[in-house]
Amino acid sequence: MKAKFCLFALPLLPLSVLAAPLPDAHESGVHQEGAHQHGLGSLSLALNEQQLILELHAPAADIVGFEHAPQNIEQEQQQTAAFKRVQDANLLFTLPKQAECTFIESKLIDQDEDELNEHEDNHEAKADNHKAKSTGADEHQNAAHDHDHDHDHDEHGHSDVLVQYHYQCLQPQALTSLDTQLFEQFASFNKIELQGIIANSQVAATLSQEQTRAAW
Prior knowledge:
Elements: H1 25-28, E1 40-48, E2 51-59, H2 60-63, H3 73-86, H4 89-92, E3 93-94, E4 101-110, H5 111-133, H6 137-155, E5 160-169, E6 177-180, H7 182-185, E7 191-198, E8 201-208, E9 213-215
Parallel strand pairs: 1-7
Antiparallel strand pairs: 1-2, 2-5, 3-6, 4-5, 6-9, 7-8
Helix pairs in contact: 5-6
């Protein structure tokens, strides 16, 4: 499965209300679609008046410890615990006290289901296309071969996790830094690329186990 980097909306604050785009991913070093890399996460930040959105995008292997569906009770428990931990913003992020930010809620999307649905839709369209164009047994065999090849590719693919965190900040002008404990809670992370928008200014930083704070 290909990695995706997208900003999805919570009912409390659709990110579409932010007029300015996030910094260009190429300029800030963020690896986007097609660049799934274990140990590398990306964190987006957007502030609109008093509402702050953080969004974490990471390989499932770095959050859960594996990228396939749970195969036993132990893995189910491991996944449940990991998803609970990654949604706890108070455990993962520290914002300046002067900003008076209160964590409201978080939302997690496991991309496996979205990717599976997308693959099935694409496969059905491909099968219909082959059926319409086929004029002999050889073409049908080629279509079947392509179908099997696609399944083999997805079965050995990657999966990613998206989590969005929503805050209310009473003094947003004091929001001048962010500290993260992601490296403590998820030890397989090597680097997290941060990009965002604060007061019409763009923020970009590389966080690591040695550098867990970004200031602007």
